[in-house]
Design goal:
The complex is a heterodimer of chains A (278) and B (136).
Chain A: H1 23-46, H2 56-67, H3 71-77, E1 87-88, E2 102-107, H4 112-125, E3 129-132, E4 135-138, E5 149-152, E6 157-160, E7 164-169, H5 183-192, E8 200-203, E9 207-210, H6 224-230, H7 237-256, H8 262-265, H9 268-277
Parallel strand pairs in A: 2-7
Antiparallel strand pairs in A: 1-9, 2-8, 3-6, 4-5, 8-9
Helix pairs in contact in A: 2-6, 4-7, 7-9
Chain B: H1 3-26, H2 41-45, H3 59-75, H4 79-104, H5 109-135
Helix pairs in contact in B: 1-3, 1-5, 3-4, 3-5, 4-5
Classes of the chains: A alpha+beta (278), B mainly alpha (136).
Amino acid sequence: MSRPPAKRARPMRKPVSRTPVWVLPLAVVAGIALLVGAFLLIRWYTTPVPPSPLNVDATQRVVTAITAISASELDAVGKGTANNVIKPVSGTLLTGPNGHPEVFYLGAEYCPYCAAERWPMIIALSRFGTFSGLKTTTSSSTDVYPNTPTFTFHGATYTSQYIEFVSVETTDRDQNPLETPTAAQQALVKQYDTSGSIPFVDFGNRYAFSGAMYLPDVVSGMSWQAVADALQQPDSQQAKAILGSANLITAAICKLTADQPAPVCSSAAIQAIEKTLG
Amino acid sequence: MTWQKLAVVASVAGLAISIYLTVVHYSTIPLACPANAVVNCEQVLSSRYAVIGDSGLPTSAAGIAWFLVSAALALLRRRRALLAWSSIGLLTVLVLVYIEIVKLGAVCIWCTAAHAMVLLIFLIALSRLQGDTVSA
């Protein structure tokens, strides 16, 4: 009589996988590295090429167009869609070499927010004096809001019988050093621009602001001439943002000049904004 | 150090970074961060993507909540839940990294440090669960 075959003992454990534990995490890390590489490639492919700066004549046409905007159109826009970031500050009145109240600007050519803010600054300051030597440029191609069309204050001069305008553009659009603020200017920035943001603008140590009054995408992808044309239409998005910002800056300067010149500072829109500045 | 301790340490580190970024958002404390062509925390944190929708709530506030939950799951040894939670976190991180690189063209090193903590927690959760499956 034969014995029944003995039952095979069941294994105590399931068979161990041959794949080492570290393989899956490593595969995840490799996958993420590939994704990051793909993101970098997308960025490289989608970074737009900046438009060439305008020649002297074309630049002058644009500057003339934006600085000749009528007082009635500026009044019609009022504050527009601009964000009032101007804050009152206290300190000894800041004056320039000729004894007039000084408007001090610190920015950089690469900075898209500076690019946006130069449009209203030029419009507002041109109501008190005259710029010469302005050149067109664009913000950095690799920064947020790339290639925002603008002008540079580097190499430009400004004359006025009411105020003095001092500008420092710290770097060019590729972030190469351009101008260095003096020790006194650095002290101003340290005192009033605690966040360290640019652009920073000080209105004679009476008012100051940092950052832009509107987002640069308002003029994104536009040519300088297209922006100038849009500013002739009070209902355009660009006019509401840029002329609104220009009115805010104008009102701050009027506070410095004791409302001079009267034709600029006595307008209803500027007077209304002045009351909100504190 | 056990997997549980490592996950808790990573969660606490991520929590500290998120709290720091949230405090900076709501105060005038300057952000400690170098600025060059690639690294620019200010640019990332002042962008419209640095807040959740129109709420004004900084993204880092969501990070505080996320790291608190991941620390709790690690302490309670809820491995499957931690893997699911960290998967959601990792997907969110990938979206944020996409925004930094493609949309903004700038990297915030504090955000990257927090993202690295999310990835570490995910890898810990993944390897632990995989280890459990193998030795079950």
